[in-house]
Amino acid sequence: MTSTTITTPDRSSPPALGPERPVAWPKRTVLTLANGLQVVLAEARTFPKISAQLFFRSGNASVAYRSPGLAELTATVARTGTTNRPLRRIEEDLRRMGGDLGASAGADISAIGISGVADFSEGLLEMLADLARNASFPEEEFERERRQRIEGLKIQRTTPDFLATERLRRTLFGEHPYAIVAPMPEQVAAFRREQLEEFYRQNYSPANALLILVGDFSAAAILDQVEKIFGAWKAPAPAPQKWPEPPHQAGRQVHLVHLPGSVQTQVLIGNLAITRRDPDWYRMVLANSIYGGAFHSRLVMNIREQKGYTYSPRSGINALREYGYFTVHAAVRNEVTAATLTEMFYEMDRMRSLPVTDQELESARNYLTGVFSLGVATQDGVLSQLSTVFLDRLPEDYLETYRARIKALTADDILAAARRHFDSANEQIVLVGDRAQIADQATLFGPVTEYDPQGNRV
Amino acid sequence: MKKLHIPVEHTKLANGLRVVAAPDHSAPVVTVGVYYQIGFRLEPRGRSGFAHLFEHMMFQGSENAGKMEHIRLINASGGLLNGTTHYDITNYFEAVPSNALERVLWLEADRMRALKVDNENLRNQRDVVKEEVRVNVMNQPYGGFPWLDLPPVAFRNWPNAHNFYGDFQDLDAATLADVKDFFRTYYSPNNAVLLMLGDLDPAEAFGLAKKYFEDIPSHALPPPADVSEPPQKEERRGEVEEKFGTLPALAIGYTVPPRGSKDWYAMTILDRVLHGGRAGRIYRELVFEKQIAIETDGSLDVFDANGPTQMVTRIFYRPELTSDATVAAYDAVIREVQEKEISEDELAPVKVKFRADYYSMLEGGMGSYMPRFGLMHYLACFTLFDGDPDRINTVLDGFMAVSPAEVQAAAKKYLVPTNRAVLARRPVDHGESR
Question: Number of folded domains in chain B?
């Protein structure tokens, strides 16, 4: 009798990970020009293109009291004409260099970004400098952009996640300018061209700026171009500003934004937390990741994979320059609005009560360090990490030490961070949806204040 | 401009699975994709939305990786993952540190070999998908505009013309038997391509592919379905109510000539002349010059459609204007490109931008969080639809060779009323309360 051996590979368990390969972040050239412009260069030579971001450390917060949204409109109009180039020429020059251009402003910064074919690096940088120094704010383009912005704001005001964020920021930040995420259409309608010019003159200055360049170039050669193109630019930095502190929250409160006809409820809860410069930052990042910051997190498992309440629940830490805040959000069917909040709080309180398991800890550490390193593979990934480091003035070895810092954290660290920064007892709860469908569920979680989509109390 | 050459190697396993590797050691990261040649065009009748619902089911468990294990293992290896459903393909992909390559292949092979799901998983994902439709379509201004609104107006053959996200009653009607049938019919190795990109050695990667995938049995695929459209003899028009948004909007679509044909190259370049961002003729005329539109954009699925598809323009216009006046302004732009040959001065930069965009897409794509997403996506499309992954390095030649006369000829031949559909999205009047 003969026997044949058939070998079937064992497929019952996943193969172990191979040895970790080192991640080498590109070497940075960091310097400050005589005019105060901070410059960061990093070579990334796999694809024949370059990306540049010119940041100014002044955004919408700096004008929130007198003209909310002025920084944003200034950035938008600044790209529509300079003393050297009318609008059409800007767009055509860009296309000739295979370029893309973006100009925008957030709470803390205004930014002009340009990218394109590496052969045209000099032309692209010249255009960037032209937009940063010589914007002419043509009257006709100002009128047109303002009208477009007004219509955009009206549409934004029908979007549930915008309405939720707007209400939460109002609640968490009170008198601090971070309270305002967007102007009302009438406020933009009242802007005058001269206000944009004034904001531009005061804030678009080299001493207030950071230029980051990533791409297919040699750092030495591109540095010559940068000095030639940006070196002669002179303007003083704006004076620093001081803002009131955000309010202290006492107890959970519900803020219901009535959006008639909603077939879903946008749930957003949040509390003030920490910035990237806080010693607790890494602990908080890990705690957030296990709670609701990743696909395999507890919150996603619970309300998506077990209960099917929602498609994309997530939690996150939103780090602005002066303050950070922690949020949890999900868009859910109306009937399970209260049930969703119950689970969000349950998982939050569990994070505050018990240490995470060893498996969760290890998975989350690997997840964060691995995903962090994926950024090294693209120019945009490198640029985005460098922006974080230099805008938030983090230690220069941040990229190289991130892995080790995350890997050193323990279950006790996470428990401590959750207790300090998941402020379960004082969460502010925003619900955007149809009042008739959700008002009785809302009252289960605290006193309810109701608003219309324009932000008025009703 | 420097020409990029992507090193590509490919092979085919005994069971028909095509395997493509593109090594790139610039970062210790690999991107892996498995693309099946089935999308929402060919989902069963009475089961609209099924291809997408099925995609969700592929994350619900397989023989050796139970529910959520797939996701947990990828995340715990330091990686990201997702899946998406298109007209003619459904893809599953991961970006991970390169020490996790073998683990990713194990997971993908496990679910290609033996999906293992139950009724509870199906009920759960049906609920999740309904919330996805609500959050992306039913509860958003301009939700589904125009990717869900326009095809039913433009096309007559059900595969091209139905609701791809799915009517809720069809989603409710889906059974576990449907899931198993769909898996058996389309998720066979000979209907798929495996892509491995990044920090890897192709020979080693092929060895791993063989180890995990080669003994997955394959079977005969159904004969190709007829997705052709009957000849169009009239302009087609439709209207959809806009529940939230405040501006009236139009989507105008022209059906594109067959993939890979000479006209297809010309039409793609014509698309960039017309759209192509703020330098494009439509944006320039409608937003900058005539100021009829508040916003406009346009697109053409160049590489990832393998059947009837359209070049589409979206126009959000000033509320005091009529749709007729807006269409008339748009038509003036179309007439100009038909009547007057485009200059080399205009065409040359369009081509530079086309190449630059192609390279950017290869590097990142998908919002850039997934390295080499575009490279993976295009390699898959070239393999499945054209049988030739090396087109990644040659396809640009066809676009660069398009002449001004060919652009004009394409405009005359394809930008005609009997080849187009116009969809209006009209805001409902909410009175003073909004």
Answer: 2
What is the per-residue pLDDT for B3? 84
> Nearest chain B Cα to A147, which residue?
B294
**Inside any domain, residue A43:** yes
Interface pTM, i.e. ipTM: 0.95
A377 and A438 assigned to the same domain: yes
**A36, A78: one domain:** yes
B250 lies in a domain?
yes
How does the average pLDDT of chain A come out, rounded?
Answer: 96
Query: Does some domain include residue B2?
Result: no
CATH number, domain at B331? 3.30.830.10
| Euclidean distance between CA atoms B429 and B248, whole angstroms | 11
Specify whether A300 is located in the same domain as A360.
Answer: yes
Q: What would the two tokens of residue A360 be?
A: 């969760």
Q: How many domains is chain A built from?
A: 2
Contacts of A154 in chain B (CB under 8 A): 246-247
Token pair belonging to B178: 């449907």
Residues B270 and B367 in one domain: yes
Q: Do B139 and A306 touch (CB under 8 A)?
A: no
Evaluate whether residue B231 is within a structural domain. no
- CA proximity to B321, closest of B282, B354, B348, B294: B294
Q: How far is B348 from chain A (nearest CA, A)?
A: 8
Residue of A nearest to B70 (CA): A296
Question: How many angstroms separate the Cα of A272 from the Cα of each of A131, A248, A427, B21?
Answer: 36, 9, 9, 47
Residue A255 CA to residue A165 CA, distance in Å, equals 11
Claim to verify: residue B191 and residue B322 sit in the same structural domain: no
- On whether both B110 and B240 belong to a single domain, the answer is no
The reply to whether residue A158 touches residue B141, judged by beta carbons under 8 angstroms, is yes
Look up the CATH number of the domain holding residue A357. 3.30.830.10
Residue B205 sits in the same domain as residue B145: yes
Closest CB from A95, A263, A312 relative to B279:
A95
Please tell me the distance in Å from A103's CA to the nearest CA on chain B. Answer: 14
Which of A49, A304, A453 is closest, CB to CB, to B359?
Answer: A49
A380/B1 Cβ within 8 A: no
What CA–CA distances, in Å, run from B183 to A115, A157, B34, B129, B191? 43, 43, 14, 19, 11
Residue of chain B whose Cα is closest to the Cα of A361: B76
Averaged pLDDT for residues A60-67:
94
- How close, in Å, is residue A432 to chain B by CA atoms? 11
The minimal CB distance from A94 to the residues B109, B198, B279 is found for B279
Query: Does B73 sit within 8 Å of A95, measured CB to CB?
Result: no
Express each pLDDT in B286-313 by its tens digit. Answer: 999 999 999 999 999 889 999 999 999 9
Mean pLDDT of B65-86: 95
Same domain, B128 and B259: no
Q: What is the pLDDT of residues A228-285, one digit of tens each?
A: 999 999 999 999 999 999 999 999 999 999 999 899 999 999 999 999 999 999 999 9
Non-local (6+) Cβ contacts of A410 within 8 A are: A361
Residues B353 and B250 placed together within one structural domain of the fold: yes
Amino acid at A1: M
The answer to whether the Cβ–Cβ distance between A370 and B67 falls below 8 Å is: no
Full domain range(s) for residue B127: 9-213
Q: Average pLDDT in the B83-107 region?
A: 97
Distance between CA atoms of A275 and A336, rounded to whole angstroms? Answer: 33
- Please report where in the chains the tokens 């022209």 appear, as a residue: B254
The reply to whether A304 and A189 lie within a common domain is no
Q: Are residues A379 and A444 in the same domain?
A: yes
- Taking CA atoms, what residue in A is nearest to B123? A308
Domain residue limits at A93: 28-230
Q: Which of A11, A264, A453 sits opposite B139 (nearest CB)?
A: A264
Considering the domain architecture, whether residues B14 and B83 belong to the same structural domain is answered as: yes
Task: Assess whether B318 and B209 both reside in one domain.
Answer: no
Q: What is the pLDDT of residues B305-337, one digit of tens each?
A: 999 999 999 999 999 999 999 999 999 999 999
- Choose among B78, B106, B295: nearest Cβ to A370: B78
In angstroms, the CA A281 to CA A285 distance is 6
The position carrying tokens 């009920």 is B123
Rounded (10°) CA dihedral A148, A149, A153, A159:
70
